[in-house]
TrEMBL record:
GO terms for molecular function: ATP binding; ATP hydrolysis activity. This is ABC transporter. It is a peripheral membrane protein. It comes from Rhodococcoides trifolii. SUPFAM superfamilies: P-loop containing nucleoside triphosphate hydrolases (SSF52540). Residues 3-239, 255-499 form the ABC transporter domain. CDD domains: ABC_Carb_Monos_I (cd03216), ABC_Carb_Monos_II (cd03215). It is found in: Cell membrane. One of its GO terms (cellular component) is plasma membrane. Its main location: membrane. Keywords: ATP-binding, Cell membrane, Membrane, Nucleotide-binding, Repeat, Translocase, Transport.
Length: 499
């Protein structure tokens, strides 16, 4: 099916999120929508999927004008979405999620879960997914939840499929697999809109590229364009894709982790007798394929995993079994890998989110009240400094684009006096221009003498930031190597070979 969007305009109050956008996506092509954070990509896709109603413009499918009163109508017309934030019900099984909203019943009026299970198995087999139809979504790692979203869209026989940053949460291997799947889908005639901030992916699969900036289409680019060309078209200036940094001059050991073991809620060992240290003024990257204990390790450092054994000491003070408040008060900054779940309160304003980890005695906190004027001024400075695209610091964080939400988390954590920074997937969902800024800030944090741990599944990010790299595999650190280790060396360690 061919899709055409003509002159789509969508406003939120005074903000014009989409300003007369034209986009055409042909049957069988992968069309990349590129643009900086807040450019209006997700909004446009929400208009297409019937979630928002545009004030102006029209949608045509195979030349026929269509209007959608809601997502159900868009879905029935063959438009499938794989969202940036999962729309799954966590307490339901995979099969139950697949039939949700599309319930087919057996003769007795009961849900035909058997058919749904089979559908999950069939689609999984076709695309090489390993998804158990009876697993509870809540128990699945993020990457598997994503695959359920894809299966759900495919189960509705979507003819136009929108992938809104699908790879932000995938491992490099899963990403490669997804690229193959997208190609297969396109070859079978699906029209695909692909939103991503990763230029490598764009260059790998795009047939055509449309670039949006500040709600407007600014041009088309060729898939043969270089990363530098694509980056500057996106953000309207030249971008340093790899931040230059001086070699580290590490000081004394600051964080010492010894024999740390962390259990998952099911009782399995998630981090297995891990020992390492981080010195002042160095960046230790924790690399590995997602799900090898990195998340649990970062959470244990924050006091989020009570019952862990071994020892964690920061500047000589034990942090093991401390509560989160004490860990934050000890000067630990934390960027969680899942910003919506652990990093922000969607219903709070930007300003309120920027002071979430402060405690009594802080300039923002008066006697039992917030000092709103001081907080707003601080928030305004941070919004400017971190280039958070918003109309006001009183905007609810939930209304920001994904990348701008991530910048709020970073602004908060990088604005305190830190004795240790633990940043998990710090640049998830943010555009290339902002990655440059965030990497510079992380390097500056290091250069100010703070020990930094960066947990990242992105090898480009690890290579850009790390002074040393610890690789995790099945809960263990299988090797600690220099920051300039080759991809091949890291790849072997990530697959379980020991150094
Ligand atoms: N429901 C809403 N209410 C108010 N403003 C909104 C709403 N949804 C989006 N916006 C605003 O519209 C603009 C475009 O946001 P959108 O999510 O479309 O950006 P995006 O290009 O997808 O960005 P990112 O790359 O960060 O995901 C942003 O300024 C955002 O704050």
């Amino acid at each position: 099916m061919n899709l055409e969007l003509r002159g789509i305009t969508k406003r939120f109050g005074a903000l014009v999120a989409n300003d007369h956008i034209d986009l055409s996506v042909r049957e069988g092509e992968i069309h990349c929508l590129l643009g900086e954070n807040g450019a209006g990509k997700s909004t446009l896709m929400n208009v297409l999927s019937g979630l928002y109603r545009a004030e102006e413009g029209e949608i045509l499918l195979d030349g026929e004008k269509v209007t959608f009163a809601g997502p159900g109508e868009a879905m029935n017309a063959g438009i499938g979405m794989v969202h940036q934030h999962f729309m799954l019900i966590p307490v339901f099984t995979v099969a139950e999620n697949i039939i949700l909203g599309n319930e087919k019943t057996t003769f007795g009026g009961r849900l035909d879960l058997g058919a749904a299970r089979q559908l999950v198995r069939d689609i999984s087999a076709r695309f090489g997914f390993d998804v158990d139809p009876d697993a509870l979504v809540d128990d699945l790692p993020v990457g598997a939840q994503q695959r359920v979203e894809i299966i759900k869209a495919l189960s509705r026989e979507a003819k136009v499929l929108v992938f809104d940053e699908p790879t932000a949460v995938l491992t490099p291997q899963e990403t490669d697999e997804l690229m193959v799947i997208m190609r297969q889908l396109a070859e079978s005639g699906t029209a695909i809109v692909f939103i991503t901030h990763k230029l490598r992916e764009v260059r790998e699969v795009a047939d055509r590229i449309t670039v949006v900036r500040l709600g407007k289409v600014v041009g088309e680019a060729e898939p043969t364009a270089s990363n530098t060309e694509l980056a500057s078209l996106m953000v309207g200036r030249s971008v340093e894709l790899t931040v230059a940094k001086e070699p580290a001059t590490p000081g004394d050991s600051a964080l010492v982790v010894d024999g740390l073991t962390v259990w998952s809620p099911s009782g399995a060992v998630a981090v297995d007798n891990v020992s390492f240290e981080v010195r002042r003024g160095e960046i230790l990257a924790i690399a590995g394929v997602q799900g090898n204990g990195q998340t649990e390790l970062a959470e244990a450092l924050l006091g989020l995993r009570p019952g862990s054994t071994g020892s964690i000491t920061l500047d000589g003070k034990s942090l093991l079994d401390s509560d989160v408040r004490s860990v934050l008060d000890a000067g630990v900054g934390f960027v969680p890998e899942d910003r919506t779940q652990d990093g922000l309160v969607a219903e709070f304003t930007i300003a309120e989110n920027l002071m979430l980890d402060r405690s009594v005695g802080d300039p923002f906190v008066g006697r039992g009240t917030l000092r709103r004027a001081i907080l707003r001024k601080f928030a305004q400075e941070k919004v400017t400094e971190f280039d958070v695209r918003t109309q006001s610091v009183d905007e609810h964080v939930g209304r920001l684009s994904g990348g701008n939400q991530q910048k709020v988390v970073l602004a908060r954590e990088l604005s305190r006096d830190l004795r240790l920074l633990v940043a998990a997937q710090p640049t998830r969902g943010i555009d290339v221009g902002s990655i440059e800024f965030v990497h510079k800030r992380i390097v500056a944090t290091r250069d100010a003498g703070t020990p930094v741990i960066v947990v990242s599944t992105e090898l480009d990010e690890v290579a850009a930031l790390a002074d040393r790299i610890a690789v995790m595999y099945r809960g263990k650190i299988v090797g600690i190597v220099d920051g300039d280790a080759t991809r091949e060396e890291l790849g072997l360690l990530m697959a379980g070979a020991s150094s």
